[in-house]
Design brief:
With about 350 residues, the chain is of the alpha+beta class. It contains twelve helices and 14 strands. It comes from Nocardioides faecalis.
Length: about 350
């Protein structure tokens, strides 16, 4: 019938014969059936917490020529950071882009009266979703804060769903739409090579706190002979300052040993390294960052490191570069990323 992904269950309507769906009487049995949206049902044992299943259930309420958008569209398209859970730990509603159609309000679903052109709506694994660039622009315009708008942009680029130029092209066509100033602000601060939301937050905290700072996300560092010294979360190449965010993955003994070794390598080459420790507030991080900038200003002598890669290096810092990688290259070169 369609190419619905394995393991997911498409909701069905009531059927008086009981062949294609539950009868009205069967649907009243909560141990057998669960109402997923108005007029639609799934078996009671279907996992309602799985993001992809939530998306499938919400899509059953879509009118013709309408689409899923926002985080749900990006998740369906392969955006690994879009889990459908908010910062407070509660599920985010699935957004239906319905234009001038009417959809009854119901739990777990929000509707938006905006409309997308036919070329911006894709049919992927049996569901209508807005394109990656359109979905990203939507999230950026509707984000709760400018910071979140940058996070949404960067985390979509992480999965190579969009480039900054592709999102810019969509936003350029929406000049009078809700939230466009915020989206433009975020676009000017976006990166195609951030590996986690915390890296984005650290980068924006840095650029806000230190005038003229231009930290780059996951920029490889080499010695002058072309040996790879490391790839810090953030690097300000002019100041020679690197930042690492130490989340839970850094608490293990082996990871701590690797971190210490890299710290020593960077220090030997005159790179000031600042760590944002798990549990620290932004003020703690900025205090250490300020001290690092003071230390960097006193440094003199020739540099023994560079960000110019040697000829043998395969670049992965842009969406365009990563899209050119083979499957085996992606598995090998991108294995250190966290999502």
């Amino acid at each position: 019938m369609d190419d619905m992904r394995p393991g997911l269950v498409r909701p069905v309507r009531l059927d008086s014969s009981g062949r294609t769906g539950p009868t009205r009487g069967q649907a009243r049995n909560a141990s057998r059936w669960r109402r997923s949206s108005h007029g639609h049902y799934v078996p009671a044992d279907v996992d309602a917490t799985l993001p992809e299943q939530r998306i499938v259930e919400a899509a059953a309420a879509l009118p013709d020529r309408c689409a899923i958008t926002g985080w749900a569209a990006l998740r369906w398209l392969g955006g690994s950071w879009f889990t459908g859970v908010g910062a407070d730990g509660r599920p985010l509603p699935v957004t239906l882009l319905i234009s001038t159609h009417d959809v009854r309000p119901q739990p777990g679903i929000e509707v938006c009266g905006e409309g997308a052109g036919r070329h911006d709506i894709l049919r992927v694994h049996g569901l209508a979703v807005t394109s990656p660039a359109w979905s990203t622009a939507f999230l950026m315009r509707r984000a709760a804060s400018p910071l979140q708008a940058v996070v949404d942009l960067d985390m979509t680029a992480y999965s190579d769903l969009v480039s900054l130029d592709e999102v810019a092209a969509v936003i350029a066509q929406q000049s009078s739409w809700t939230g466009v100033p915020q989206a433009r602000w975020a676009l000017a601060r976006g990166s195609e090579n951030a590996w986690s939301p915390m890296e984005v937050r650290a980068r924006l905290a840095w650029t806000t706190h230190v005038e003229d700072a231009r930290p780059e996300a996951n920029r490889p560092v080499f010695d002058l002979a072309g040996h790879h010294l490391g790839t810090p979360d953030l690097l300000e190449p002019t100041a020679g300052i690197a930042v690492e965010y130490d989340g839970l993955v850094h608490l293990g003994r082996e990871q701590r040993r690797a971190d210490r070794t890299r710290d020593e390598v960077f220090a030997a080459h005159g790179i000031e390294l600042v760590r944002w420790l798990s549990g620290d507030g932004v003020d703690d991080f900025l205090r250490r960052l300020t001290a690092a900038h003071r230390g960097a200003a006193l440094r003199d002598g020739p540099r023994t490191w560079t960000t110019v890669p040697p000829p043998w290096w395969t670049p992965t810092t842009t969406v365009a570069a990563r899209r050119q990688l083979s499957a085996s290259q992606r598995a090998r070169l991108l294995r250190y990323r966290t999502a």
